[in-house]
Design a protein that fits this description.
Elements lengths: L2 H8 L8 H7 L3 E5 L7 E6 L2 E7 L4 H16 L9 E4 L11 H14 L2 H9 L6 H8 L3 H10 L4
Parallel strand pairs: 1-3
Antiparallel strand pairs: 2-3, 2-4
Helix pairs in contact: 1-4, 3-4, 6-7
C-alpha cells in the first residue's frame, strides 16, 4: 500500500498530517520512549500487533518523520515472517542510505507528511512558496521540505 492510498483511506484532510492518528487507524500501536540508544525508531510485532517505538528526546519534526517512516515499513510490506523488526538509526533517514527498504520508507514518509498534491495546491492557490512557511504548515523540518520540493520538481 503506498502513501497516497493510506492518505485516501486514513487521513481526515487536515494539516499537518497526524502520523500517530493514521497509525492508530491502521491498527498500529505507537509508543514514545525516552532515548533509544542511538535509534530514532523501530517497528516490530508484539503479540501479533504492529508496534512503533520512537525516540521522544528527538525534536518533534523528527519524531513525526520517524513514525511516518515506520508506518512506511509496515504499509510497504517490509515486515514479514522472516523480517519482523526494523530498527532505524538516524543515518537511515539520510537521502541516500543505500538500503532500498529504507529509501522506500523515506519516500513513503515524505509523501505521507507532505502530500504532493497538497503542496502543489498550497503553492499555486494559496501562494505560499517560502520553504520556512511550507515547513511550518506541514510541521516538518525545512530540510525535509526542501528535499520534498526538489523531488516534486518544484525546486
Amino acid at each position: 500500500m503506498d502513501a497516497s492510498s493510506v492518505l485516501d483511506t486514513r487521513w481526515d484532510g487536515t494539516l499537518p498530517v497526524d502520523p500517530e492518528k493514521i497509525a492508530s487507524f491502521m491498527g498500529i500501536k505507537v509508543i514514545q520512549e525516552l532515548g533509544m540508544d542511538g535509534c530514532s525508531g523501530r517497528i516490530e510485532f508484539e503479540n501479533h500487533v504492529p508496534v512503533i517505538r520512537y525516540d521522544g528526546t528527538e525534536v518533534p519534526v523528527r519524531q513525526r518523520f520517524t513514525i511516518a517512516h515506520e508506518i512506511g515499513h509496515f504499509a510497504l510490506g517490509h515486515l514479514n515472517a522472516k523480517r519482523a523488526f526494523f530498527r532505524d538509526p538516524p543515518t537511515n533517514f539520510t537521502s541516500n542510505p543505500g538500503i532500498q527498504e529504507e529509501v522506500s520508507a523515506n519516500g513513503f514518509a515524505a509523501e505521507l507528511l507532505m502530500p504532493g498534491k497538497i503542496i502543489k495546491y498550497v503553492i499555486s492557490v494559496k501562494k505560499i512558496k517560502d520553504i520556512e512557511r511550507l515547513a511550518n504548515l506541514f510541521f516538518v523540518s525545512q530540510t525535509a521540505m526542501r528535499y520534498r520540493l526538489i523531488n516534486l520538481g518544484i525546486l
